[in-house]
Amino acid sequence: SSELTQDPAVSVALGQTVRITCQGDSLRSYYASWYQQKPGQAPVLVIYGKNNRPSGIPDRFSGSSSGTTASLTITEAQAEDEADYYCNSRDSSGNHWAFGGGTKLTVL
Amino acid sequence: QVQLQESGPGLVKPSETLSLTCTVSGGSISSYYWSWIRQPAGKGLEWIGRIYNSGSTNYNPSLKSRVTMSLDRSKNQFSLKLTSVTAADTAVYYCARVVAAAVVSWFDPWGQGTLVTVSS
């Protein structure tokens, strides 16, 4: 199965820690990647693989995975972290990809 | 630094074919997968398909009957054709490079996106 499930919305107080999760059977076999999208902008890769950040992504972003759940954790969330976050992974065949439905993060 | 730029008509009539091109600059189109992703207004991302340097393709099963991807190595471009479009195909279309190895994969970089509206 290539279906990935995310909570539609999550909120976090400024400076606190928040975890955004992504569930799917394919996550037993493949790592998720995570994307941040702000209004009117293209998605930006923030985490890939076991826990890798592209150049320029702050170290307050981290990733983890256990069984069928992948998680994106933002430590000491900042106002600029308010955005939509999408997970992505391959399906069991390895030849198709799917995105989760997205999580809207609000920083209070 | 690799950059991607989508181009194509912003308006397509219902039942006609949507055609977009992604131009890759700052790097070769060889040795990577390349993908198209779309996003209807206010909705999430939908993976459309991927093409490899060899020309091999994989498409989203929900769109497979209407999608064709191709690439032009001489121009460092890859393209998307989506036939028999309806209003449901109205979306921002993104192209992206896919890095895939064993159990790890990611989409980076992305183009800025291009809005395609299906309307008569």
Written overview of the protein:
The complex is a heterodimer of chains A (108) and B (120). With 108 residues, chain A is mainly beta. Chain A is built from no helices and ten strands. In chain A, strands 2, 4, 5, 8, 9 and 10 form a six-stranded mixed beta sheet that branches. The radius of gyration of chain A is 13 Å and the shape is globular. Chain A starts with a strand and ends with a strand. The mean pLDDT of chain A is 96. Chain B is an all-beta fold and 120 residues long. In chain B, the strands form two sheets. In chain B, strands 2, 4, 5, 6, 9, 10 and 11 form a seven-stranded mixed beta sheet that branches. The relative contact order of chain B is 0.32. The model of chain B has no long low-confidence stretch (mean pLDDT 96). The interface between A and B is medium-sized, with 26 and 24 residues.
